[in-house]
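Case study 2.
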Amino acid sequence: MALESKHFSSLKSTCEAGQKSVAFMAQLSASIVNPVQGHVIVFDQTITNEGAAYNNVHGIFTAPLNGTYEFSLIVSSPPNPSIYHEFHLFLMKNNVQIGYVFLDHNTQFWLRRGTTAIVHLKPTDEVWVQVDRVVGDHEIAGCCFHSHFGGFLIHAD
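Prediction:
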């Protein structure tokens, strides 16, 4: 009960302070085939963008407020007949890795992997998804929520 009371007090003070809501979710509208190392994955189909902090043209979230944020990344890949392939993606904050997804050389089944990161951001800090290592041919599945990126403000400072 004490924890619930503390949580309610926190929510009440947040509402009284007029804190903006910051939350986004975007998916790939189409598959991306063989992206190169360093490529920023642009999740171009915005589902939610409260606070307008996610840019679906460049694929970058820019923090509007000081605070603690949660980010999640889910990526899927269809079966791949090539013998050996692997694909690495990083969740990045200002050019520093904060999350990692690895799609291995499975040839018979769909692969679906995800990661979550909880980080403190200052205004203008940026978060995005970037290709790291690619071996062989690979595809990130688009459409129908196969691959998506999202995040939200947990609490402002």
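Residues 7-16 have pLDDT under 50 and may be disordered.
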